[in-house]
Amino acid sequence: MMRFFFRGAAALVFLGLVGCVSTPPNPVGASSSESRAADAIIDRWIEGLGGERAIRKLASLETRQSFQFDPGARKMEIHMRKVASGNYRFEGNLSGVGELAEGFDGRTAWRENPSLGFGLIPTQELINTLQTDDFLRPLKTRLMYPRRRKVADETLGGRSFQVLAMGGRDGVTEKWLFAADTGRLMRVERPPLNSAGTPIVMEYSDYRKVGEFAYAFGTERTEGANKITMRYASVRPNVPIDQKIFTPPADRMREAKEVERILAKHLDAIGGIEPLARISTRVITASVEVTTSGIKLHTTITQKRPNLIVSEQDMPGMGRSSQGFDGRTGWSSSDMQGYRTLADAELQSLVSNSDVRVDAQLRERCPMRTLLGERDVNGRPAYAIKLASLQGVAGTYFFDKENGRLVRIESVFNVGPQSNLRAALDFSDFRNVEGVIMPFVTTMTNPAMRTVTTLESVKVNVPVDDAIFRPRKDD
Amino acid sequence: MIHRFSPAARWALVLLVSILTVRATEPEKEKIPEADWPDVRERTFTEVWQTVNDTYCDPTFGGVDWAAMRVKYHAKLADSTDKAKLRDLLQSMLNELRRTHFAILPREAAVFTPAERTRIGTVGATFARVEGQIVVAKVHPGSPADLAGITPGQVVLGVNGFTMAQLGSWLTQAGMSESRSSFYLANYVTGWLRRPVGTEVQLALADAAGGAKEVKLTCAPHDGAWSEPLGNFPSLPLEMTTTRAPDGLAYLSFNLFTPSLMKGVRTFLRSLQPGDGLVIDLRGNGGGVTVMAPGISGWLTTKEFSLGGMSLRQGFMSFAVFPQEKAFTGPVAILIDSGSASTSEILAAGLQEEGRARIFGERSAGAALPSSFKTLPMGDLFQFAIADMKTPKGKVLEGEGVAPDQDVQRTRAGLAAGEDPVLSAANSWLDRERHAAPANAAGAGTPKIPAESKPR
């Protein structure tokens, strides 16, 4: 599909800024004359880009561009090199992430960041990127949008546009606006994915001739209040590019394979995916003791697929508190602080814990890894791996060398709004519950405090009424 | 991200206590078998030193060579032949940090069960620093102090045979600056008069005419509710007053931030009507469970904000305030004095900086460090600060306190006459705010201190 792309917009794919979710087909009925009229406009557009012959001869492309996410935010500078076969290398400084390099050598797609580590790019993500960056993409417009129809011309800002309704293979019909005078594509509107969504609008400007090609040097993507601006600083078609730059570093590839092996062993150590997949509900009761202050409380955590959770605490002398997510609202209620809804990192933290399969999702959730070597954890050798997503570092995870179990996490944990705590979680007393191997004791250690959480019971697939996950304003 | 940090553990972490404790009582001697004492003493010393070493929020210990302190005080450990001497030694070592919320509290003086409530008796009087002296601020009707003829405004000259000058010098020796130590004297006197029920205490007083007298009092049980213990944080006697005058002037006072009082506070705040004005009297309130400050604030606001935050050695926790439905949005006046400490200061400073309350009275104690309590091998309780506290604007409360928006001093004569100029000023301001027109402050009169209602 059109994918609301910036050419060479892999960075946006990484950041989740580009996404197309299929919606039910909404065919654009088109008579043959309407279709022919549409194709004539597309032909004129392709001709303006340099023409089919030149596009087919495009062997390589080197671009430098900047992205601006908010008017006041720091610009993201990107250097992209790619060849017609699809191999590419991207280097950029992403906000909040830092220097990121990414490449595809025809076999392996990879990315690397000094703080997040090294990771292999999932196949689906690679396919999306390759589609977006396909040199022949303009020539494939008819293939990707089988239902095309010319509709009434429009005037925007005093300028006249020819308009096409483009019915894509994903069932979504986009509106493409071409400048009547130049034939250039100036604007694409994609309807909201649902009634609560907002349309996505791409605007192309500042077309410049580069050799025999024409590129829009300015692009704006608007979705509701969010606007991203991209500007090319330079575009160099058909420059010689050394194929070696697409190849991942050999040492990092070896490390990635070793990490994959460790994570696969961990998956086996928890019993594999199957036992977790059989769990629809889980109710855990546990005691929590803050050993440094003598405080004890009792907690019950109830989970239900796909992502419902409620955690209830009862502390002598302190009263009750509970937190939950009912699929729509994350909430917290306590005798001391009353009721509130959860947002941001707090909500993310709760929801991350809601899925009973979370233990089996390390690989998916943390695609960036750094093998730190072997460490001693409570007298046993363990592999230390720094795990991260593109949003940040999850922490250092320690896996028992012999049995593959996750025995420690060292991380900075969210403990409330604008609150975080650097701590180590140690897992012990592993037991089998319906095929799932889980730690019954978790010890949290921070210089200021230490808590020990001991599971008292774990029940799976018991009936759980959805009502218990709903916000408890009156508690 | 993968988190795995259970909400329950997260909830347990916020249960820090910010309360200014004073060890001034001489508890009953509890014997530890002589043969065991050297080992218990050593382990206790190590526990205290190590706890500070591991948890103190500033890894540089504010410039104090903490490792050297171990050597210095360990050299004197053999001289600690009993628990009292060991307490003094440990307290001296902790005083090197020159921070509040580091205290060794005799287990014998702490209350954890209803049966232990006779461990703390009271004379039924509270004290405050007025006109540079420690004076009787309030006398509870029917209490030993009341029956002995003690009245507000009388000056305290000494306690149990020690003069105020001696008590003050001990505070100075304990590392308190001279200017700050005077602020703590009222707390110190209160502490010295908390003894096991039935214990006789002596109080030297001077009346308005300057005549001195010595009074013997027998500590009586607290005749009200007690807080529930929270882990190693013991039970304490509770006092709470809630009144709402027909004209809409509401008054809330409590002596301790504790979950046991939260329901009563919440119910009272929810009962206030649009157009009311609220006084929260934190004078003499030494603090308590820190999270209660944002909890109360949530009933006084329609928007989310922070009362500030605490920096741990490895972490930061914000005292976020979450607005509650039907929160009271009328004007709020907070009363403070030098006895207002810890959580009282966090609440007052946070609401002041947010512009949600106007502060009346005298500068607060400047003792606001979130702390934790642990039990030592010798059986005593060890209170240790684990974080530094800053207001939303980054102001440090420890050693500084909260400066009132309107400085109002009490006088001995006023106390003797049953007047409360601080409350009067607050009420005048509330009247003006409520009616959005200048009021004649003098015409508002000097209200009497509201009668006390004890939570049961």
Classify the beta-strand content of chain B into a percent band.
15-25%
User: Biggest interface and its residues per chain?
Assistant: A-B, 66 and 56 residues
* CATH class call of the largest domain in chain A: Mainly Beta
Could you report the average pLDDT of chain B, rounded to the nearest whole number? 86
The name of the CATH architecture of the largest domain in chain A is Clam
Number of domains of chain B: 3
What helical percentage do the residues of chain A reach? 10-25%
User: How many strand units of chain B?
Assistant: 22
According to CATH, the homologous superfamily of the largest domain in chain B is 2-enoyl-CoA Hydratase, Chain A, domain 1
Count of DSSP E strands of chain A?
26
| CATH-defined topology of the largest domain in chain B | 2-enoyl-CoA Hydratase, Chain A, domain 1
N-end to C-end Cα span of chain A: 49 Å
The number of helical segments of chain A is: 9
Task: Tell me what the structure shows.
The complex is a heterodimer of chains A (475) and B (456). With 475 residues, chain A is an alpha+beta fold. Chain A has 2 domains: 10-248, outer membrane lipoprotein receptor (LolB), chain A (Clam), CATH 2.50.20; 252-469, outer membrane lipoprotein receptor (LolB), chain A. Helices cover 17% and strands 48% of the residues of chain A. Chain A contains 9 helices and 26 strands. Chain A has helices spanning 10-14, 32-49, 52-57, 123-132, 141-144, 250-269, 273-277, 344-354, 362-365, and strands spanning 60-68, 76-83, 88-94, 98-104, 109-113, 117-120, 147-156, 159-167, 173-179, 185-190, 200-210, 213-223, 226-237, 281-290, 295-304, 308-315, 319-325, 330-334, 338-341, 368-377, 380-389, 392-400, 406-416, 419-433, 436-446, 449-460. In chain A, the strands form 2 sheets. Chain A has a 13-stranded antiparallel beta sheet with strand order 6-5-4-3-2-1-13-12-11-10-9-8-7. Chain A is globular and about 80 Å long. The two termini of chain A are 49 Å apart. Chain B is an alpha+beta fold. Chain B folds into 3 domains: 7-114, Transcription Regulator spoIIAA (2-Layer Sandwich), CATH 3.30.750; 121-221, Pdz3 Domain; 240-369 and 387-444, 2-enoyl-CoA Hydratase, Chain A, domain 1, CATH 3.90.226.10. Chain B has 12 helices and 22 strands. Chain B has helices at residues 7-13, 37-55, 66-74, 83-95, 144-147, 164-173, 178-192, 259-271, 292-297, 343-354, 412-416, 421-435; strands spanning 17-19, 103-105, 121-122, 125-130, 133-139, 155-159, 162-163, 200-206, 212-218, 220-221, 240-244, 249-254, 277-281, 287-289, 305-312, 315-321, 332-336, 358-361, 371-375, 381-385, 388-390, 406-407. In chain B, the strands form 7 sheets. In chain B, strands 11-12-13-17-18-22 form a 6-stranded mixed beta sheet, with helices on both faces. Chain B has a 4-stranded antiparallel beta sheet with strand order 7-6-8-9. In chain B, strands 2-20-19 form a 3-stranded antiparallel beta sheet. The radius of gyration of chain B is 22 Å and the shape is globular. Chains A and B meet through strand 14, strand 15, strand 16, strand 17 and strand 19 of A and helix 1, helix 8, helix 9, strand 15 and strand 16 of B.
